[in-house]
Amino acid sequence: MILTHRCTACGHPDYFHDRDNWCSHGNCRRHPPELNPEPELIPSFVMRDGVVVLDEELKMPGQRWLPGVRLCGCERCQEIFADRAVAA
Ligand SMILES: [Zn+2]
Ligand SMILES: [Zn+2]
Ligand SMILES: [Zn+2]
User: Fold this and answer.
1) Which of 33, 26, 37, 39 is nearest to 10 (CA)?
2) How far is the CA of 24 from the centre of ligand 1 (A)?
3) Alpha helices in the chain (DSSP H)
4) 43 in the Ramachandran plot: left (φ > 0), alpha (ψ -120 to 50) or beta?
5) How far is the CA of 3 from the centre of ligand 1 (A)?
6) Distance in Å, CA 87 to ligand 1 centroid
7) How far apart are alpha carbons 2 and 36 in whole angstroms?
8) pLDDT tens per residue, the chain (88 residues)?
9) Which residues surround ligand 1, an ion (CB under 5 A)?
10) Of 2, 52, 60, 82, whose CB has the highest number of CB atoms within 10 Å?
């Protein structure tokens, strides 16, 4: 699981929006991003024994997630991460 800010212009998560903050997803039209300030929890997946499975662990905000992709580490993401850590 990861926290992302979804772009309200195209519906893709923040990490598809590249260094210039333009969306790089598939055929998505390039546009300035309009990221929702409220982060959203979305499922992420890992390879386990050659099978793709749901990764239940919530990744820490701000950490490197995939090559070239760093998760958002804003205050709101940290807050939600901390809340879930307490609840778990
Ligand atoms: Zn977008
Ligand atoms: Zn997009
Ligand atoms: Zn954030």
Assistant:
1) 33
2) 8
3) 75-87
4) beta
5) 16
6) 32
7) 15
8) 999 999 999 999 998 887 666 888 888 878 888 899 999 999 999 999 999 999 999 999 999 988 888 899 999 999 999 998 877 6
9) 7, 9-10, 23, 33
10) 2
